[in-house]
Amino acid sequence: MQEQPKLKDLLEFPCKFTYKVMGYAKPELPDLVLEVIQRHAPGDYTPAVKPSGKGTYNSVSVSITATSIEQVETLYKELGEIDIVRMVL
Question: Which family does it belong to (predicted)?
């Protein structure tokens, strides 16, 4: 049985990497997401915000130029720690 490739083996750095952050539909969600991203991957970002069908949640998508697997993993962890965030894809 073949082992599944790890994320770090599939990516070549630097590369474009998109985070999709699902959280409660609060107006501060995009700002909170950008605050974390700016800490680890400073840049000029325009997050794409989409409401869920019922409007309870929003998804915020932001693409960064990732420079290392450590950066990618740190961002997953810290984005997931935002209070109103439910999931990071």
Answer: Belongs to the UPF0250 family.
